[in-house]
Amino acid sequence: MTNPHATIALHPSSCTSCMLCVRECPDWCISIEAHSEPDPDAPQYSNARRPAMKNVLDSFQIDFSHCLWCGICIEVCPFDALFWSEKDMTSGKSRSEVIYGIDELAASLPSAKRLDGSPAPLRDEPPSGRRKK
Ligand code: SF4
Ligand code: SF4
What we know:
The protein is an alpha+beta fold. The chain is 12% helix and 24% strand. It has helices at 20-24, 72-76, 102-107, and strands spanning 7-10, 30-38, 53-63, 82-85, 99-100, 112-113. The protein starts with 6 loop residues before the first strand and ends in a 20-residue tail after the last strand. The relative contact order is 0.29. Bound molecules: iron/sulfur cluster (SF4) (2 copies).
């Protein structure tokens, strides 16, 4: 039988670098680097003093050697970017081998599910936006 909580998956283009998961993780497993750049898709206002900006994710890492599998990061993410996945990426690996970045976290999306049981988006699917409560 597969374990639906084997690891955590990230949908990179859904992540807005809001840092909520970083702040709420009880064991400081998550680290994120991001930068801001002008958002070409934002509405343009003639009286705007500066261009609208958006955060762009540069790196996202989860250190599974410290992870408690508590799921708080998944629950607090408001943008439908983190999911439980059935894909076990950590068993049999040493502590230094279980720090995963964007590509590894996205690789388990095909076996990932939302908290309501619906399938997580695949990596090339667009962001679904802010999660509805
Ligand atoms: S499952 Fe818990 S301990 Fe693991 S990264 Fe998420 S918030 Fe941190
Ligand atoms: S809470 Fe979600 S959107 Fe915010 S930084 Fe974490 S993964 Fe990205």
